[in-house]
UniProtKB/TrEMBL annotation:
Belongs to the type III secretion exporter family. It is a multi-pass membrane protein. The keyword DNA repair does not apply. InterPro entries: FlhB, T3SS_substrate_exporter, T3SS_substrate_exporter_C. GO terms for biological process: bacterial-type flagellum assembly; protein secretion. This is Flagellar biosynthetic protein FlhB. The lineage of its organism: Bacteria, Bacillati, Bacillota, Bacilli, Bacillales. The gene is flhB. It is found in: Cell membrane.
Length: 356
């Protein structure tokens, strides 16, 4: 029982295949705080530098139009519907560009963390998520405590941003009561934007350790046991017994082919120990000598044994044997680099056999 527990304990780093499978399922290290902070930062920067005055002017126009035109209209269903349609359309024109840029910033934050990835697996219904026992475990888990700590830090950071901006502009705040409504509105808007930018920067700083924690937690979640690694290896590479039988079958087929092809050779070229190449020259089939069979170590010894049994000449030529073994496959013709050496070997064999 103890040995089984150790075998099932998740102590090993995830294999590349495990990581790839997890990524396909959408199980990736990602901090949502990075996206949120980046979206807030971009939104407030755009408001501060470009969109703020345009949106403020647009809101002024909407308010003026509402008070000057719609205020004198009768309260009827068509008039109210027209009012809401007009206000909704005008508001959409004002904020849609800003919202589009903000969404792009969030997408860019996701791309920075996970790269290009599209999967629908996280959207699938999983009944285990409805398990109340597992839900209770998630509530009282270390991850829940981390999320609680993050929430508290966010409140502290946003509060700090408000205090910092108010403290640095305390004189303008105290003089608000002495300014007209338009100037006060501009001042409040500027202060709100500064608070937003400072808060976004602080949240970005907080998002860095959160991303590091998410990576650590992800690595912990995808850890594997020694048994998992063995099972994956068996699945990927096949059962060792089956692989052994497959190799044995391949060896038997190779040896059978050698027994069939080597007796047809004109000569066996050896190096003399490790390599053996069987050559055949048949003008009816090819313009140059071609390889009937080749082998290294055990296969080379098998070729030489078959050659001795069928009285096929064997010629020792270290360079030629190694070169042909490395550069030619079965049925390949010898190339120009080997012509001279092969011609000398064949001439010697033909002379030995009494051919003219």
């Amino acid at each position: 029982m103890d040995l089984q527990w150790f075998a099932d304990e998740k102590t090993e780093k995830a294999t590349p295949k495990k990581r790839q499978d997890s990524r396909k399922k959408g199980q990736i290290p990602k901090s949502q705080d990075v996206n949120t902070a980046l979206m807030l930062f971009v939104a407030f920067i755009i408001l501060w530098l470009f969109a703020g005055p345009a949106i403020f002017s647009g809101l002024q126009g909407m308010m003026l139009d509402s008070l000057s035109r719609f205020l004198h209209m009768d309260v009827t269903t068509p008039n109210i519907a027209s009012l809401f349609r007009t206000l909704t359309w005008n508001m959409a024109i004002l904020v849609l560009p800003l919202m589009a840029i903000t969404v792009l910033a969030g997408a860019f934050g996701s791309f920075l963390q996970v790269g290009s990835l599209f999967t629908t697996d996280p959207l699938k219904l999983k009944l285990e998520k409805l398990d109340p026992i597992k839900g209770a475990k998630r509530i009282f888990s270390a991850r829940a405590l981390v999320e609680l700590a993050k929430s508290i830090l966010k409140i502290v950071f946003v509060g700090a941003a408000v205090i910092i901006v108010l403290y640095m502009n305390i004189e303008d705040v105290l003089l608000l009561s002495q300014k007209n409504i338009e100037v006060s509105a501009v001042t409040v808007g500027e202060l709100a934007l500064m608070m937003g930018i400072v808060a976004a920067i602080l949240l970005l700083i907080l998002a860095i350790p959160d991303y590091l924690y998410q990576r650590y937690d992800h690595e912990k979640q995808i850890r594997m046991s020694k048994k998992d690694i063995r099972d994956e290896h068996k699945t990927s590479e096949g059962d060792p017994k089956i692989r052994a039988r497959r190799k044995q079958k391949q060896l038997e087929m190779s040896m059978a082919r050698l027994a069939q092809d080597v007796p047809k050779a004109d000569v066996i070229i050896t190096n003399p120990t490790h390599f053996a190449v069987a050559l055949k020259y048949d003008q009816a089939k090819a313009d140059a000598p071609y390889v009937l069979a080749k082998g290294m170590d055990y296969a080379a010894e098998r070729i030489k044994k078959i050659a001795r049994e069928h009285h096929i000449p064997m010629v020792e030529n270290v360079w030629l044997a190694r070169t042909m073994y490395a550069n030619l496959q079965v049925n390949d013709q010898v190339n120009e680099e080997m012509f001279e050496a092969v011609a000398e070997v064949l001439a010697y064999v033909y002379q030995l056999n009494g051919h003219t």
